[in-house]
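Researcher: Sequence recovery benchmark, item below. Answer with residues only.
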């Protein structure tokens, strides 16, 4: 993991660690099998990122990564036994989350994570049981410092992406 942190630390590309690892840092530690990373880059810059990742030691099939990035806005890389799921940012919410990102020192490296509020919203959008548990843990840890109006506003804006998940209602229930 330290090598992956070193890669991220030296990355000249905006990013954030999201998913279970972010939940462990922002809330309660839990086991996770991969690293989820949100990348902020234009598709034209992706070949350069992939070349740097390959030189650093990440394993992936270049053509498949480029194809998946173009078609699905995500791709996978392996580093030793760790899978890194890379998602490409595209929404206004993700841009706002990038602006609000926080930096946390892990060992000797400074790594970027979403703010607790943005992490909560990201996890509510996915809505799986483990995501809701992550949300509860982050709320418990940051309850007195959360920007609740910000979260309520974005929950309403993100509702169309959430399909059947009632974001505003679920957020209100979890904040009780």
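Model:
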């Amino acid at each position: 993991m330290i090598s992956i942190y070193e890669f991220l630390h030296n990355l000249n590309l905006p990013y954030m660690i999201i998913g279970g690892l972010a939940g462990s840092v922002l809330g309660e530690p839990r086991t996770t099998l991969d690293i989820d990373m949100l990348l902020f880059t234009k598709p034209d810059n992706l070949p350069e990122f992939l070349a740097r990742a390959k030189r650093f030691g990440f394993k992936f099939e270049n053509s498949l990564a480029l194809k998946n990035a173009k078609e699905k806005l995500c791709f996978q890389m392996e580093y030793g036994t760790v899978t890194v799921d890379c998602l490409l940012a595209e929404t206004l919410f993700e841009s706002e989350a990038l602006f609000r990102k926080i930096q946390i020192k892990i060992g000797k490296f400074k790594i970027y994570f979403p703010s607790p509020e943005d992490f909560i919203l990201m996890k509510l959008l996915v809505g799986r049981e483990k995501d809701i548990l992550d949300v509860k843990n982050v709320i418990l840890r940051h309850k007195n410092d959360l920007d609740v109006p910000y979260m309520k506003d974005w929950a309403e804006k993100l509702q169309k992406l959430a399909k059947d998940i009632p974001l505003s209602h679920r957020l209100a229930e979890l904040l009780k």
